[in-house]
Each structure stands twice: as C-alpha cells, then as structure tokens.
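Tutorial, part two.
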Amino acid sequence: MSSLVLDAEALYADLLRGMRQQLAASSQPPRLVGVASGGAWLAERLQKDLGLNEDIGILSSSMHRDDFSQRGMSSSGQTVLPFDVNGAHLVVVDDVLYTGRTIRAVLNELFDYGRPASVRLMVLVDRGGRELPVQADLAVARVTLPASQTLELARTDDGRFRFRLQDIHTPA
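Running the prediction step on this input gives:
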C-alpha cells in the first residue's frame, strides 16, 4: 500500500474557494452537475456551502461506458437532471480524474438530454494517466499513482470526505 496522504477536506476547501471565484467572475451562475457518486457528493455539498438554491444534477456514466461489456451496469446511481440543460452553463464536478473515459461517458450522457451553452470540469484530484484528451478546468491536486492503485472519494456518516487508496489485486 502506498504512503500517499491526501486530506480530502482540505482539498474540498480549495475546491469551494475555486468555485466562489468562478461564481464571482461569471455573469450567469452555472448549474452544478456531479458525476455519480463522489462527484455528486461534492456537488451537493458545494450547493449548500455556496448558498445556491437550484437543485444539482447527477450524471451516471453507466450507459455510455466503453467497457460496459466487461463491467456491466454500475450501481453508482442514475442520471438525474432536474433542469433543462439546453443553453445552460454547467459545471461538472468529479472526485478523481484519471483516464478521461468516465468524463467522456458522462458528457455523452449529458448531451442525450440537450445542448448546454458551456461545460466546465472541476475535480479534487487529477491523477494523470489520461487515455483520452480530457482535462479539468480546475484540479485542486495533481498526483501520480501507478495503474495498480485506485483512488476514490469516500464520505463518512457525518458527511466529511476522505480518500480511499487501494491496491488492485490481479489474479496470478
């Protein structure tokens, strides 16, 4: 197991600060859309902490995964977009950006619902390893991890964030 230590709460505070700057600089407030599940947790908390009245959206990557035949249907949640995405300025929020394939899948899902005016991507951690030309507009932290490890956001019962770093065990 790696000795990498990431303070998810401190990174969230930086993400919140970045979102406040985005809101102050924009003439039209964006709608928050979280990627299920870690990104949705972040979007929910950002909505509350920013005092936004509009409901957030949640995007699932399940139906547009390019590895659907291997992974099957994910239990991470379903897409919920309680607003018209046509012409909307959206901020997609996710916990960890890795290969770019999840973001490609959620963008395909998003465009099934309409054509937004703009889409920005904000993540807590960019771990590199991109397989597609996808980048975040804001990545609070950048780390390098081997492909043999996963990094995901977890949420405690009291709503605090922490990261779970795990080694992937492959059969011999």
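The longest strand covers residues 89-97. In part three we will examine how such features are distributed along the chain.
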